[in-house]
Amino acid sequence: MQLQRERDTAPEMALRRELHRRGLRYRVDVAAVPATRRRIDIAFTRCQVAIFIDGCFWHGCPEHGRRQHDINGWYWPAKIAGNKERDADTDRRLGEAGWVVRRFWEHDDPLSAADEITALVRAAQDTGES
């Protein structure tokens, strides 16, 4: 698992390229929750919008996540359940701190994800200026 990329994955890079092409500027790999190792994949810090791109295997995608594990079947269900619990806790903590959190799966279309993020960021910027 050490060799598994934590950032700059292909789905994340595709989304980041599209957001940048649209003129949106963001920070990458930002500390999410103080005193933890949790990181926001794409952060719009001024308007407090946090974007996560979750891998189907690691975060238990209902569409593509594996239900049966042939190797180490005793380990993976608990590991993935723990990842899901940590994700929910991160979302809750960020929400309590005033952040808007959106999660996308690695298989989601980057263009449609960018459409949603663009609208979200623009709306947050508009409300922040008032």
> Rough shape?
globular
Instruction: Report mean pLDDT, rounded to a whole number.
Output: 90
Q: What is the helix/strand order?
A: HEEEHHEH
Kindly give the count of domains.
1
What fraction strand?
A: 15-25%
The N- and C-terminal alpha carbons lie at a distance of 46 Å
Order of the strands making up the biggest sheet:
1-2-3-4
How would you describe this protein?
With 130 residues, this protein is an alpha+beta fold. The chain has one domain. 44% of the residues lie in helices and 18% in strands. It has helices at 10-21, 56-59, 76-96, 110-129; strands at 27-31, 39-44, 49-54, 100-105. It is globular and about 50 Å long. The model has no long low-confidence stretch (mean pLDDT 90).
Q: In brief, what are we looking at here?
A:
The protein is an alpha+beta fold. 44% of the residues lie in helices and 18% in strands.
Could you list some keywords that capture this structure?
single chain, 130 residues, alpha+beta, 4-stranded mixed β-sheet, 4 helices
